[in-house]
Amino acid sequence: MITTLIALSLSALSVYAAGDEDVFEWRPEIHHVFRDAETMPPAWFSQLFALIALSPWLVLTIGWLGLGVTPFKVLGQLASGPTIRPVSIVAFLTSLAAVEYLFYLYFTRLNIFETLSYLALLLPVVFVTGQHALRQVQARRKSA
Question: 110-130, pLDDT tens digit by residue?
Fold first, then answer.
């Protein structure tokens, strides 16, 4: 037991008091290893993906044409009543198409901040024209 006390007291002599240790000693140089930059997919692959993402619109259009639904026929039916004006419906569909085009631009060349700023300008237009279009469609259904 005495030998352990002597060993502990000798090891305590080598301990520095707070603030007495040598903080500024030479250390080995740190060599960072960075990962290689991530590669982007080829442009043809991105364009193919965009076509695949837009293909439901093509399928929808072909289905509508197969059923005999054309934009002129729909607008003609909506405009046949005295309370319906197709201007708001066309404005709503145009604003929706503008949002879809903005998403395409985001996919091809815009960054997220530019896209959000343009979207902030478009969304009030989409909201207002959508309200008017749906209000007119509802008025037509109630009158029929």
Answer: 999 999 999 999 999 999 999
For 99-120, b/e burial (b = at least 16 CB within 10 A) is eeebeeebeeebeeeeeeebbe
Q: Tokens at residue 73, please?
A: 């026929």
* Rounded distance between C-alpha atoms, residue 13 and residue 30, angstroms: 32
Q: Which of 137, 139, 39 is nearest to 88 (CA)?
A: 137
Residue range 34-44, pLDDT digits in tens: 888 888 889 99
Of 89, 91, 110, nearest in space to 101 by CA: 110
Q: Comparing C-alpha atoms, which of 125, 40, 51 is closest to residue 88? A: 125
